[in-house]
Design brief:
71% helix; mainly alpha; 14 helices; 2 strands; 425 residues
């Protein structure tokens, strides 16, 4: 009982002390009124929080967190749009300055940085490859031209003239002139991006030989029978295609595959007809064919990137990497190849500008160009070693396998680009 009484007395004393202190502290009514007035003024001046115009959710930034609609749309002053465009371009350019040096000089660096999560400081792989690919092949179109004389030979050596020759000596003369023109064309295209068209030139050479041999046989048979010189037959198969062992003809022997629908067969025959017609234009304007082929190459490379990534996936199946990781490696590899090709073209352009007559400076440019070309396979090998971190023996084996398969794939892609260019020119 005594303890309970003591506790009660202590509580009473504490309560009395608090009341006394409150009574001893005078209330500052002026300060309280000022705070109340400030709160009232801020409440009166407070603006309602902005809401998304699409879904009505409260906006917390430049994009709605609920639906993703941006706050800034296209319906605003043109000056603001132009400023945003310059800001975007400047941002990309800044990242390019941080991306291009390691892309060229540090094999595998960008891919490993991307996998480590350090991504925003560099240009994205897709944008990097797209930019360099377009820049490289656009500059390739501007950097060289094809002389029409190397293709048409002044109209004295093409297939139609060979078929129109009336003597064996005339056939041989026109055949030799056409072959000389093709040889000069191949020499001009060697070691340039247009070298992808050399197989087409060689196919043209074979066709000239066949046309000359057929015309000589016609003339000799007619002479042996005592008949007049046969007239030249129109050639509607300038591409020298064969269907079921016979020369293609749009009416007598067209493409007619049973496993294809009728419209697909018609489309294929129409494309061949268009390509045959463009051959005559090619003789007059070979640059049109060159531009069409080089314009088709970037699209072809975009198709090759996921295929090459699939090849990497199969080669490193036990690494348990995601397919998209191989896509990043493929994009960086092709971006480097486009960058290196662009540098080769720039060096060649400088050589033609600063050393058109040869000399020591031209030799120096030749060495630089050779080093840039040699850096391509070395770079890809080192990149493959650093990204996948395997021993040198396995890396070399897989590098050779991938290189062989990709070379075959690239050859088909080049022929496809040539076919697309011939039809699209």
């Amino acid at each position: 009982m005594r303890k309970i009484g003591r506790r009660a007395s202590w509580r009473g004393c504490a309560r009395a002390a608090i009341l006394t202190a409150k009574g001893a502290m005078p209330m500052n009514t002026t300060t309280t009124d000022a705070h109340a007035a400030a709160n009232a003024e801020s409440a009166a001046n407070a603006t309602p929080q902005a809401a998304c115009r699409n879904c009505g959710a409260a906006l917390l930034g430049d994009h709605c967190y609920a639906c993703g609609q941006p706050v800034k749309g296209l319906v605003r002053p043109l000056g603001n749009l132009f400023g945003d465009l310059l800001d975007s371009v400047f941002n990309v350019d800044t990242r390019i300055l941080r991306t291009i040096p390691p892309l060229f000089a540090k094999p595998g660096f960008l891919s490993t940085e991307y996998f480590a999560g350090r991504q925003v400081r560099y240009v994205t792989p897709v944008r990097l490859f797209f930019f360099l690919c377009i820049a490289a092949f656009f500059f390739a179109q501007l950097s060289f031209q094809i002389d029409p004389d190397t293709i048409d030979v002044d109209g004295k050596g093409n297939s139609s003239d060979i078929r129109g020759a009336t003597t064996v000596a005339e056939v041989e003369k026109r055949r030799d002139a056409a072959l000389a023109g093709f040889a000069e064309a191949k020499q001009n295209m060697a070691d340039t991006p247009a070298a992808s068209g050399i197989p087409g030139i060689e196919a043209g050479e074979q066709k000239v030989r066949e046309e000359a041999a057929a015309r000589i046989k016609q003339l000799q048979d007619a002479q042996a029978k005592g008949e007049p010189v046969p007239e030249a037959e129109p050639d509607e198969n300038k591409l020298n295609l064969s269907i079921n062992g016979k020369r293609w003809d749009p009416k007598k022997n067209p493409i007619d595959k049973a496993w294809l629908p009728a419209f697909a067969n018609r489309w294929l025959n129409d494309q061949i007809v268009r390509g045959n017609r463009n051959i005559e234009r090619l003789k007059q304007d070979p640059s049109a064919f060159k531009d069409a082929v080089l314009s088709a190459v970037p699209t072809t490379l975009f198709v090759l990137v996921p295929i090459f990534a699939l090849m990497l996936k199969l080669a490193y199946l036990f690494k348990r990497r995601l397919y998209m990781e191989h896509v990043v490696v493929a994009l960086h590899s092709h971006a480097f190849l486009c960058l290196d090709l662009l540098l080769v073209l720039l060096v060649r352009a400088l050589e033609q500008w600063l050393a058109p007559n040869g000399g020591a400076l031209a030799g120096l440019f030749g060495w630089v160009e050779g080093l840039l070309l040699a850096w391509m396979p070395v770079y890809l090998l080192i990149m493959q070693k650093r990204v996948y971190a395997q021993g040198w023996p396995m890396t070399l084996l897989k590098y050779c396998m991938l290189g062989f398969c990709y070379t075959i794939l690239l050859s088909f892609a080049i022929f496809a680009s040539m076919a697309i260019g011939l039809v699209a020119m």
